[in-house]
């Protein structure tokens, strides 16, 4: 469990706070300002509920059924029914970290005081998070409009003590049983509360925040892989010079090139071919243009962060309770802003992976590797070396390209044409998670291959930074030799890329990389 207590109130949450709760189990506390604001807004909702004039979501049906006025004696049933009927997901369980991020982000919106829920409802959601109780949410069910309805309904179902959850140990059990063991009382929903728990972009936003955190690390790892391959292929680092990069002042490109310069500093391999007899004046694009591609990916990520920061400051509900007391219908639940950047990030994930695979292939091709053995094999013909590791890369990259096709360009009308345009943002988020996972494996295979190639360049030594990466990798993966079972080595390298261990090894030499 994380140690830092995250304060949840009307203010936006920071990216790090979302990740700390979702991944590390950091405890949360609702602020006094949040509780006071929710209490005041709730009193207003109760007063509106007592009026004879229909108010959407308070005393009417939902969606295409909003024209029906609901009698007071049926309103408690109305709130239960929307949760039960909307908990209609299907497919595999969604990952624990995604569900926890979704719960936290819905809680933040409740804490804004703009939804009209009872303070106890928000307190119960916070209690579920702090107890490590995770509702079962399914892969399919959200259209990314009117919020992530089905996923959030499965969370709301647990709040009322229905459906299934996993406890802090990961055991599957009925929600009521898990809540009883944790001393948490299920919520009795009042007017508007069922709707307020479902109307949000919290699932797709949570996945965006988690993907952004992962992509930051992977883009630094992509620079690390590039540097190792440039060394291994006896490439030039002159193209990464700051004055050349300044001619095209994209910030991501500058950051990537700065990383490459730091990683390649003091390399014996680089120095070995700087003399006048070297005819290598231009490298292939996959080496020479790496800062332009890895850098553009960084700039795309920066745009996604801007959108996510705005969404984290939003109070997404329909209807919403405004500070002057008006309860107004709106379209803020539409997931387009988040859906677009989720789709956008899948494009550079595919392209960075594609460039990484091309560099790997060059190291394995005798005609283009400048003296390295075919496929880096110990005894070519008897041994196949990394031949099939590149096949694995190619297969993943092909999948990354397919995943780069946007979900948000599609829309299927729903709710009897009342909801006639939807964002498909949840689908965009699900495929981005697969893209991020695939990119980590692709970069890991390049690093694994480049480390082998650098070892084969001995007695010339790589730079101190890239050498430290090879040494860190060698703690888990042996060096060149006859063919052996490669899958565990790929898995080990992937784990070291994902957890930042290889970046940390380089940074012990270079200082912080970006």
TrEMBL record:
Contains an active site 4-methylidene-imidazol-5-one (MIO), which is formed autocatalytically by cyclization and dehydration of residues Cys-Ser-Gly. It comes from the Bacteria. It catalyses: L-histidine = trans-urocanate + NH4(+). Its EC number is 4.3.1.3. Its main location: cytoplasm. It is found in: Cytoplasm. GO terms for biological process: L-histidine catabolic process. Belongs to the PAL/histidase family. This is Histidine ammonia-lyase. It comes from Actinomadura barringtoniae.
């Amino acid at each position: 469990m994380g140690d830092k207590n995250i304060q949840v109130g009307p203010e936006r949450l920071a990216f790090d706070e979302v990740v700390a709760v979702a991944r590390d189990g950091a405890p949360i506390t609702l602020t006094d300002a949040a509780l006071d604001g929710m209490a005041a807004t709730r009193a207003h909702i109760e007063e509106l509920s007592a009026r004879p004039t229909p108010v959407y979501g308070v005393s009417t049906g939902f969606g295409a059924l909003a024209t029906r006025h609901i009698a007071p004696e049926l309103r408690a049933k109305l709130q239960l029914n929307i949760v039960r009927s909307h908990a209609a997901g299907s497919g595999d369980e969604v990952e624990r970290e995604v569900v926890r991020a979704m719960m936290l982000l819905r809680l933040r919106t409740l804490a804004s005081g703009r939804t009209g829920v009872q303070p106890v409802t928000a307190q119960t959601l916070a209690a579920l998070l702090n107890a490590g109780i995770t509702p079962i949410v399914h892969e399919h069910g959200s259209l990314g409009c009117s919020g992530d309805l089905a996923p959030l309904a499965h969370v709301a179902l647990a709040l009322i003590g229905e459906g299934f959850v996993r406890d802090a140990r990961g055991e599957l059990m009925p929600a009521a049983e898990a809540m009883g063991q944790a001393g948490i009382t299920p919520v009795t929903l009042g007017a508007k509360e069922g709707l307020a728990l479902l109307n949000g972009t919290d699932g797709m936003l949570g996945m965006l925040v988690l993907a952004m955190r992962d992509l930051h690390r992977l883009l630094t790892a992509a620079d690390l892989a590039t540097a190792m391959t440039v060394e291994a292929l006896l490439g030039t680092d002159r193209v990464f010079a700051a004055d050349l990069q300044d001619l095209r002042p994209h910030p991501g490109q500058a950051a990537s090139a700065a990383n490459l310069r730091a990683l390649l500093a003091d390399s014996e391999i680089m120095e070995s071919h700087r003399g006048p007899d070297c005819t290598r004046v231009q490298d292939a694009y996959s080496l020479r243009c790496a800062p332009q591609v890895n850098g553009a990916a960084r700039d795309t990520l920066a745009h996604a962060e801007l959108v996510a920061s705005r969404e984290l400051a939003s109070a997404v509900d329909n209807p919403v309770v405004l500070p002057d007391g008006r309860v107004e219908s709106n379209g803020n639940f539409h997931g387009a802003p988040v859906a677009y950047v989720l789709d956008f990030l899948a494009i550079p994930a595919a392209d960075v992976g594609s460039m990484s695979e091309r560099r790997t292939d060059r190291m394995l091709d005798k005609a283009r590797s400048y003296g390295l053995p075919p496929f880096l094999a110990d005894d070519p013909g008897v041994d196949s070396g990394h031949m099939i590791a590149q096949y694995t890369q190619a297969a993943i990259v092909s999948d990354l390209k397919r995943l780069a096709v946007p979900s948000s360009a599609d829309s299927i009308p729903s709710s009897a044409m009342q909801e006639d345009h939807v964002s498909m943002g949840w689908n965009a988020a699900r495929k981005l998670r697969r893209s991020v996972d695939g990119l980590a494996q692709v970069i890991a295979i390049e690093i694994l291959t480049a480390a082998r190639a650098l070892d084969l360049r001995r007695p010339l030594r790589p730079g101190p930074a890239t050498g430290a990466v090879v040494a860190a990798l060698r703690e888990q993966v042996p060096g060149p030799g006859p063919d052996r079972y490669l899958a565990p080595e790929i898995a080990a390298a992937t784990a070291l890329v994902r957890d930042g261990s290889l970046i940390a090894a380089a940074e012990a030499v270079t200082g912080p990389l970006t």
